[in-house]
Design brief:
The complex is a heterodimer of chains A (368) and B (607).
Chain A lengths: L3 E5 L11 E7 L2 E8 L7 H5 L4 H7 L9 H15 L5 H25 L1 H4 L2 H22 L8 E2 L2 E2 L7 H24 L2 H7 L7 H7 L4 H7 L5 H4 L20 H25 L22 E9 L2 E9 L7 E5 L3 H11 L5 H10 L10
Antiparallel strand pairs in A: 1-2, 2-3, 4-5, 6-7, 7-8
Helix pairs in contact in A: 4-6, 4-12, 6-7, 7-12
Chain B lengths: L24 H6 L12 E3 L9 H5 L5 E5 L12 E6 L8 H5 L5 E3 L14 E2 L36 H4 L12 H8 L7 H5 L6 H10 L2 H11 L3 H7 L3 H5 L11 H11 L2 H8 L10 E5 L3 H12 L3 E5 L8 H4 L8 H13 L3 E3 L10 H7 L2 E4 L5 E2 L12 E3 H12 L12 E4 L3 H18 L4 E5 L10 H9 L3 E4 L1 E8 L6 E13 L5 E14 L2 E4 L3 E2 L7 H4 L4 E2 L2 E2 L6 E2 L2 E6 L9 H21 L1
Parallel strand pairs in B: 6-7, 6-9, 7-8, 9-23, 11-18, 12-13, 12-18, 13-14
Antiparallel strand pairs in B: 1-4, 2-3, 3-5, 10-19, 15-16, 16-17, 20-21, 22-23
Helix pairs in contact in B: 5-7, 5-11, 7-8, 7-11, 8-11, 9-11, 13-15, 13-21, 17-18
């Protein structure tokens, strides 16, 4: 029978972000599939070589729209490592707070985002509303809702506004009290389960083969590989939290892990607010005005645990005002490129969007 | 985790009875949500603070900011008549422009709603209103954490006060390569300094050369406008630093020290290439320069580099004028001056020293022998106060004393006759030079110092450089401010000075802002002193000019009037520069010398 060529995205309610899947289908079974990136043709990595160290802070949040802060974090970590700067203690805790809030908002978006491909729009609405509350918190802390440009070389741009702790606590208390509603709505929902249980499998061999990290790896191998535990950055070694794992990775398990992680994030946020010391929030890292900042020559790789897995920058500096090279390790790069080509075929057309969502794919970080 | 149930999702129905979190469309227009306090909305620019430096435009990552010339903005010292224009089609609201703003004029409002069918309407010049035009609610402002400037100057290594007040060793030791680079990195290259510098030196350019480590390029920039950079790098009055855009919120870039760094560290071959730069068509003609102070040397360099035959007449044994016989060694070493002079000498300029025009050689003879004459005889004589007792032998004139002191230090003369309790009248840079030199000589002669200063001015009116005032205080000079001398008391038997009688000065400038002091003659001040040094300004002596020339000179407030090329009207062959035409300052002289050289070249290349 003749194969039909189909495009999923970039303009499609089930598609996450601006990329497209090029599918050849036979009936409703995908026979071959390729990712078509390039919808976000900014060329981030190349652009970064043409921007000063500070100006890059305004560019890099765009590499992952739902969770921009890990970009700022790894960029700053690299520059600080090259310049041998010690970040003030309080800045570490503020960075953690921002990263956890960002993780929470990204998890909400992905968890509620399952509503798109399953037709359960209520989940999406709820999650967006809650995410919006986090964005309001971000607006108050950083000055912007989506692209924060807040974590910067030497610390963070500004101290936390007065009284923000109470607002954050009130929000996480409220969210925590409503998380069981999410569970009932999504995880315990038979119609969602029908689409996710024993579907869209991610066997451990595939994890090892592709180099999947994050929830994908933790859900199938049972390994608690979380950079916050494995190679703690900021002050993650000072807070207590668990890393949920599983050994059977279907779409439902991965959603459940995401759900369980939200509790851990709330737990971490409470500890941060409790333990955060007072003091400086930014160290003068480099000589001169930002127009002439020069990061000492060298190369360094730093990674943080993003909501989708290990997220890192490999930075090379030749001592100039601009990075010589920055390579981004997008957390979802392996599953989105090779994964789609090799493991999406065999699924039904309607599962493609679910596959994309539960594998934790963020388009711009492929398209960087 | 709960079991799966077909009813589980329906627990969500309880949200039907809760207040919706969404905002009705109606409210968006009628009661728009106010953003948070820190919000990075549209830009607001306080024009009373904005100096048009363009640093916002430099840092903008999206190239959204351009600087627009404004005819309605007054051209003032320390600012440019330009204001930022923001293209909201490009702006990404990162706020880096706010964070780096040198004057602190830029901030952001809380406004986030703006719409127009006209694409041009998204380009806006923010004032105290943002693009929306409505009264603004303040949003994002910078603080010390988000500040992207480096407001602190790299400290200059200096010898200790204890050591310096006992010797004439140069106090400032100069930046190391690392320090100079770090200091140069603070510059935002706005160029406001260039406008203010009398010589319009390429300041941002040579600072960038220091930052890049290219001293040859830096040296070439220096010599474009200033052949006395070793001198100016030490004792310039640095008007550039007082207008430095960084000084609006922090410490100005150490422009003078960076200039000195280039001169002190540029390799010899760099000098060779700068000095030996050939001109396409060498000038033909002979020029006499009367006086070898700053303007004379500057004119000699530029005329020499153009290929003219230049003779510099100097009445003293060595060239340099007040730079040689005035400025004390702890501020300016002979070696630094010699370095600048040697470059000028290399160009083939002849220095005819020990020859006073008007005495050893007649001005009229110069007029016959040369195609053009540049008059740069300066203000070498100390002004008198015209008060009682001034003619005593214990009243010493500043310029004469400084000349004696510098001669003594280079081993060419005896130690000046100083007493152990002295008072200096005046508070300009020369007065401080005298007082601080006295401290050192007293320490040498008596092992201790007792120097007082007396001035009409209050602390904030003192004309001397701030660093002179601070150093003077550190060296133990006692300041008697706000009092004017009326009489110098003399012991009738011995004929020596005992004290200065004065009274309190109640006003320095009149309502027209002209110097016109008033005194309260009932509030008397008496300062004990065995010797009085007068440093209340200098004056010129133009008696060497023949009447045919002096009759033609137009004077205004004691200064000779010249055109923009420093040319005397009616006497096209005569050019004047330096102290004779404007305020006493080395950098003024350098600028005049350069401009006169341009004028002389024009004159001689046309005929």
């Amino acid at each position: 029978m003749k194969e039909v060529k189909l495009f999923l995205g970039p303009q499609h309610p089930g598609m996450h972000g601006n990329s497209s899947i090029h599918m050849y289908v036979d009936g409703d079974i995908i026979k071959r599939s390729y990712l078509l990136p390039g919808m976000l043709h900014r060329g981030f990595e190349k652009s970064m070589e043409r921007r000063t160290w500070m100006n890059n802070i305004a560019l890099i949040p765009r590499i992952c729209v739902p969770e921009p802060d890990p970009n700022e974090m790894v960029f700053a970590l690299n520059a600080e490592a090259l310049a041998s700067v010690e970040v003030p203690e309080r800045a570490h805790w503020i960075r953690m707070l921002v990263l956890e809030l960002a993780r929470l908002s990204a998890h909400l978006m992905a968890f509620g985002g399952i509503g798109g491909p399953t037709g359960l729009y209520t989940a999406m609405y709820w999650a967006q509303a809650d995410r919006d509350s986090i964005l309001t918190l971000f607006e108050e802390i950083t000055g912007q809702r989506v692209y924060h440009m807040y974590i910067t070389i030497g610390g963070v741009r500004k101290d936390l506004p007065k009284g923000i702790e109470k607002k954050i606590l009130a929000f996480v208390d409220d969210l925590e009290s409503r998380l069981p509603d999410y569970e009932n709505l999504v995880l315990n929902n038979p119609s969602v389960q029908a689409r996710t249980k024993d579907q869209i499998m991610l066997p451990a061999e595939v994890v090892w083969e592709l180099g999947v990290t994050g929830i994908g790896m933790r859900s199938s191998t049972g390994k608690a590989y979380d950079l916050r535990k494995v190679t703690p950055y900021a002050r993650y070694d000072k807070v207590e939290f668990d890393v949920p794992t599983a050994t059977y990775s279907d779409a439902h398990t991965r959603l459940t892990l995401k759900y369980l992680e939200m509790y851990q994030i709330i737990r971490i946020i409470r500890q941060i607010l409790d333990l955060m010391p007072a003091g400086k929030v930014r160290e003068k890292a480099l000589d001169g005005s930002a127009l002439r900042w020069q990061v000492p020559a060298g190369q360094v790789y730093s990674a943080v645990e993003a909501s989708r897995g290990e997220y890192g920058y490999y930075t090379v500096s030749t001592g100039g005002t601009m990075p010589y090279r920055v390579a981004v390790r997008g957390a979802s790069f392996p599953q989105a490129t090779l994964g789609i080509e090799k493991y999406l075929p065999g699924h039904r057309i309607d599962d493609a969007a679910l596959w994309f969502d539960t594998m934790g794919i963020c388009s711009p970080e492929i398209d960087r | 985790m709960k079991k799966t149930s077909i009813f589980a999702p329906f627990t969500g129905w309880k949200y039907l009875f809760r207040k919706p979190v969404t905002i009705p469309m109606d409210d968006i227009f009628k009661h728009p949500r106010e953003s948070q306090d820190n919000y990075r909305g549209f830009h607001v620019n306080d024009w009373t603070k904005c100096i048009g430096c363009g640093t916002c435009s430099e840092i903008c990552p999206t190239a959204a900011i351009t600087m627009a010339q404004r005819a309605d903005v007054q051209e003032e010292e320390g600012s440019l008549p330009e204001r930022p224009v923001i293209d909201y089609g490009r702006c990404c609201f990162c706020g880096l422009c706010v964070d780096i703003c040198t004057s602190g004029s830029l901030s952001m409002s809380k406004a986030y709603l703006y719409n127009s069918p006209d694409p041009e309407a998204f380009v806006s010049m923010p004032t105290d209103r943002d693009i929306t035009g409505t009264p603004i609610i303040a949003g994002y402002v910078k603080d010390e954490n988000s500040d992207l400037l480096d407001l602190k100057r790299k400290p200059m290594p200096e010898i200790s006060v204890e050591e310096s007040k006992r010797s004439f060793v140069e106090i400032v030791r100069g930046y190391s390569a690392e320090q100079a680079k770090a200091e140069a990195a603070r510059c935002v290259a706005c160029g406001i300094c260039t406008k203010t510098c009398p010589a319009h030196m390429n300041i941002p350019e040579y600072i960038e050369s220091v930052w890049k480590g290219d001293l040859k390029e830096g040296l070439a920039y220096l010599y474009k406008t200033n052949p006395l950079s070793a001198v100016c790098g030490r004792v310039c009055t640095h008007k550039c630093e007082s207008v430095c855009s960084i000084s609006n919120r922090g410490e100005a870039i150490a422009i003078r020290w960076l200039k000195r760094y280039i001169i002190d560290n540029a390799p010899d071959e760099a000098y060779e290439s700068v000095v030996n730069a050939k001109v396409s068509k060498p000038g033909a003609g002979k020029v006499a320069i009367v006086g070898s102070g700053a303007s004379g040397l500057s004119a000699a360099y530029y005329l020499g580099s153009l290929g003219y035959e230049v003779d510099v007449y100097e009445r003293r044994e060595k060239v340099g004028g007040p730079m040689r016989y005035g400025v004390p060694r702890y501020r300016l070493t002979d070696e630094a001056l010699d370095r600048d002079v040697s470059i000028i000498r290399k160009l083939g300029v002849r220095f005819i020293t020990g020859t006073e025009v008007g005495k050893d050689v007649r001005f009229e003879d110069l007029q016959k022998k040369y195609d053009a004459i540049f008059m740069a005889t300066g203000y070498p004589y100390t002004r008198h106060l015209k008060i009682e007792g001034e003619d005593s032998r214990d009243v010493v004139l500043a310029m004469e004393f400084l000349s004696e002191a510098t001669e003594y230090l280079r081993g060419a003369g005896p130690m000046p006759d100083i007493k152990d309790d002295v008072t200096v009248i005046g508070s300009g840079n020369v007065a401080f030079d005298v007082a601080r030199t006295l401290v050192r000589l007293q320490n040498e002669k008596f092992g201790k110092s007792n120097v007082k200063m007396m001035a009409l001015e209050q602390r904030d009116q003192i004309p001397a450089d701030e660093e002179e005032i601070l150093a003077g205080a550190e060296e133990g000079i006692e300041m008697n401010l706000g009092c004017g001398p009326q009489k110098i008391e003399i012991d009738l038997e011995t004929g020596s000075v005992t004290a200065i009688q004065g009274c309190v000065c109640t006003r320095l400038f009149d309502e027209n802002n002209r110097f016109n002091p008033e005194f309260d003659y009932n509030a008397e001040v008496c300062i004990v002193a065995k010797q009085v040094y007068l440093a209340v300004g200098q004056t010129s002596d133009l008696s060497y000019l023949p009447e045919s020339v002096s009759n033609q000179l137009k004077m205004y407030r004691g200064k000779i009037q010249v055109n923009e090329n420093r040319q005397v009207e009616g006497l096209p062959w005569l050019f004047v520069g330096g102290d004779l035409i404007r305020g006493m300052d080395i950098i003024n002289g350098v600028a005049d010398g350069h401009q006169a050289a341009i004028g002389i070249d024009k004159l001689l290349s046309e005929t």
